[in-house]
Design a protein that fits this description.
Nucleotidyltransferase, domain 5, about 300 residues, alpha/beta, about 20% strand
Length: about 300
C-alpha cells in the first residue's frame, strides 16, 4: 500500500492505494502555495492519516513540468515548489521514497492502466481543459520525454491561419509560453471562449458555448466548427507521428461526449491509418485520474 496525491494549484487530494484502481480516499485540503514547510506538513499529515506502512512510498501527480533527469519541478501555480527537486526534497524530509510526475502524464497513465486505454499498447492522452496538454504511454510505461515535455502537443506555432470556415483568415494569438499560434490559445476552454469572442464579439464561458451548440444555436455552432477544425489537424499529425491505438480525452471539454465525437470524426479521415472504430474517445476516468495515475506510477506500473 502506498500514499498517493493529486496536487493542483488550489487543492491537494490524497488516497492510499493497493492497486491503481483500488483507492481509499483520505480527503482534500487547500494547497499551501507559498510556504514549503506548510506544504511538507500537509503531505506528512495525509501520509499519517492513511496509515500506509513506513517506507511504503509516496506518489504524486502535480501540476507543472517535472524533468525526469534532474527531478526539478517547474510550477508557476505553486511557487513554494517551483524549481525544487520535489521528489528528492520530500524524500529527505519524510524518510520515504517519493515519485513525482506531471498531472498530464498521470492522466494518460491512469487511462492506460485503468481507463479507456486499458488493453491498448500505445495510448496518447489528450487534455482539453483550460488549455491543451497530453502524455504518452507505450506498453504500460510512461514516456515523459526530454525535460518531461513528451506529449505536449499544445505548443508550437501550428494553428492554421486559413481555414475553410469563416473567418477564412485567423490571427495567431499570443500564448503564455512566449510563442504565438499555439494550439493552447484556441483548443481548450479558454481557447474556445477566445474564438467565440473573435467570431461574434461576445464573452461567453465554454460551458455555455457547448450548451448553446447542442441546442442548435448558429453562432455557437460556428465556434465549435472552427475549434474542431483547428484541433483535428494537429491531433491527426500527432496520431501519425506517435501511432496511438486510442486517444482518451480529458479536461473540461472532454466531458462533452458530443464534442469528442465531432473531433474523432474530423481526425480519422486525416490520418494514414484507416479505422472503422472511434480513435479519439472521452476519458473513462475524471475526478480520480491524477490519483489513479500516481498510484500506478508509485506501485511500479508506468515507471
Amino acid at each position: 500500500m502506498i500514499t498517493c496525491f493529486d496536487i493542483g494549484g488550489t487543492t491537494i487530494k490524497a488516497a492510499t492505494a493497493t492497486a491503481p484502481e483500488a483507492l481509499q480516499h483520505l480527503g482534500r485540503i487547500p494547497t499551501p502555495r507559498d510556504d514549503f514547510e506548510a506544504f511538507v506538513r500537509v503531505i506528512a499529515q495525509m501520509v499519517e492519516k492513511g496509515g500506509a506502512p513506513a517506507g511504503s512510498g509516496i506518489a504524486i501527480s502535480v501540476t507543472g513540468v517535472v524533468d525526469p533527469d534532474t527531478g526539478h519541478v517547474t510550477c508557476a501555480n505553486i511557487p513554494c515548489i517551483d524549481g525544487k527537486r520535489l521528489a528528492q526534497d520530500l524524500s529527505a524530509r519524510l524518510g520515504q521514497p517519493v515519485t513525482v510526475a506531471n498531472d498530464a502524464d498521470c492522466f494518460v497513465l491512469a487511462e492506460a492502466t485503468a481507463g479507456a486505454g486499458r488493453g491498448y499498447r500505445v495510448v496518447f492522452g489528450a487534455i482539453l481543459g483550460t488549455g491543451v496538454g497530453g502524455g504518452i504511454v507505450v506498453d504500460q510505461k510512461l514516456h515523459p520525454g526530454a525535460a518531461g515535455l513528451g506529449g505536449e502537443w499544445g505548443h508550437g506555432t501550428i494553428v492554421a491561419t486559413k481555414v475553410d470556415l469563416p473567418p477564412y483568415d485567423l490571427p495567431h494569438f499570443a500564448c503564455g509560453c512566449g510563442l504565438e499560434g499555439c494550439l493552447d490559445t484556441v483548443g481548450g476552454a479558454r481557447g474556445m471562449e477566445r474564438l467565440h469572442k473573435h467570431l461574434h464579439g461576445v464573452d461567453l464561458p465554454s460551458i455555455a458555448i457547448v450548451e448553446s451548440w447542442l441546442a442548435g444555436d448558429d453562432k455557437a455552432t460556428q465556434t465549435i466548427d472552427l475549434l474542431v477544425t483547428l484541433v483535428a489537424q494537429p491531433l491527426a499529425l500527432v496520431v501519425n507521428i506517435v501511432g496511438p491505438d486510442i486517444v482518451p480525452v480529458g479536461g473540461g471539454l472532454g466531458n462533452s461526449r458530443e464534442l469528442i465525437e465531432r473531433i474523432d470524426a474530423a481526425v480519422r479521415p486525416r490520418i494514414l491509418r484507416k479505422l472503422d472504430r472511434p480513435l479519439v474517445v472521452p476519458a473513462a476516468l475524471t475526478a480520480d485520474a491524477g490519483l489513479v495515475g500516481a498510484a500506478a506510477l508509485g506501485l511500479g506500473a508506468g515507471a
